TrEMBL record:
Protein name (database record): Multidrug resistance-associated protein 7
SMART domains: AAA
Membrane topology: Multi-pass membrane protein
Domain ABC transmembrane type-1: 1-155
Pfam families registered for this protein in UniProt: ABC_membrane, ABC_tran
A GO cellular component entry from the record: membrane
Gene3D superfamilies named among the record's database cross-references: ABC transporter type 1, transmembrane domain, P-loop containing nucleotide triphosphate hydrolases
InterPro entries xref list: AAA+_ATPase, ABC1_TM_dom, ABC1_TM_sf, ABC_transporter-like_ATP-bd, ABC_transporter-like_CS, ABC_transporter_C-like, P-loop_NTPase
Entry's Gene Ontology molecular function annotations: ABC-type transporter activity; ATP binding; ATP hydrolysis activity
Gene name of this polypeptide: ABCC10_1
Keywords: ATP-binding, Membrane, Nucleotide-binding, Transmembrane, Transmembrane helix, Transport
Compartments in which it is found: Membrane
Amino acid sequence: SVVVTIYALPWIILLYIPLAFVYYTIQSYYRYTSRDLKRLHAISLSPLYEHFTETLQGLSVIRAMRAVHRFSVRADNLLEVSQRAQFDIQAASQWLNLRLQLIGLTMLAGVAILSLLKHHLDTIDAGLVGLVISYALTISGFLNNVVSSLTETERELVSVERVHQYLEGTDHEKREGSSAPPLGWLSHGSIKFQNVYIRYNYHNPFALKKVSFEVGSSEKIGIIGRTGAGKSSIFLALFRLVELSRGRIYLDNVDISRLSLKKLRSNMAIVTQEAFLFSGSIRENLDPSGESVDAQIWQALRSCHLGGFVQTLGGLEARVEEAGRTMSAGQKQLFCLARALLCRTKIICIDEGTSQLDNETDEQIQQTIRSVFRNKTVLIIAHRVHTVRDCDRILVMNDGEVVESGRPMELLANRESHFYSILHSQ
């Protein structure tokens, strides 16, 4: 198009040169501005989404504390910041469109004026004039598309930039191990903590300090303590979600720091406080890896008192709604116990699995744990003392340390013990 217009009207090149400079200046200025505005908009969305999520999850608490107005005002402020950035993006786009249209109009006007001048000074074919004008219109549209495509690509690459920053700024786990465990490892399920220290950040105090204890094969250990005592930190250290600052942890006499994360975590099962069920079939929820046959899944369901309930739903292919919305809290926890049973691991960790349940459901789950996991090593973190009354031993945590250890009845017999004071404070 440019060649044809220059061939027909050679003097048009005197107009194209300054217009090219203006075009380059405008598109460069807009590209940088648009990219930074997109970055600001992306940054403004994170606190907005976080606020919406917190509000939806804590809606009942917000209403109970009469904090609806405060949360609404904060949502309005965050939304205004986000919309301000979005408005600036649209305004910048219109700014660019106006100037590109003016460049196109100038180009078209220059072609028309030069055509008239050449007609008066010389002869020019009318068809050629029409061709030049049509090509001039094409050039204008082409230039608009080029700058729009470039800026849109750069703006969307801001998302790639943020993903890259997240990947680079996040500490990566050391997944590979320095040695493989011996054949038949973790057949006993013994655990040994040896002078363990951990902290979540270099500047934070230790979450665990001087923690030492041993758990024998098939032993049931209850871990109790007040909020912030360091109970859950034991599981974080055991699964290597947080690397040790000092000390060693051994499973069947093998240092877990020498194992790969896959090998370590695949040989333990955990039941968390908040039962996790995802959208899919019951079979997919209980056996995500597909390693169990139907008979094994049904056996696990019956062991966890869920056989009849699953049959009423339609069997293993029945659909589970996201987060198991149609199930009670007790049923969801029993499903998690069945999933842990199907993992066929020797060590089971239960992190306050019954803290949000009523006493009747809690008792049912405790019976399930005693019967189903009787040949497994079980660590139970509990807030309520009666949840761990049937454990072989109790570990009492306080300020990141194990302050007491012993059999439940022995600790209860001592009125000066931490266990006794926790029991009578509930």
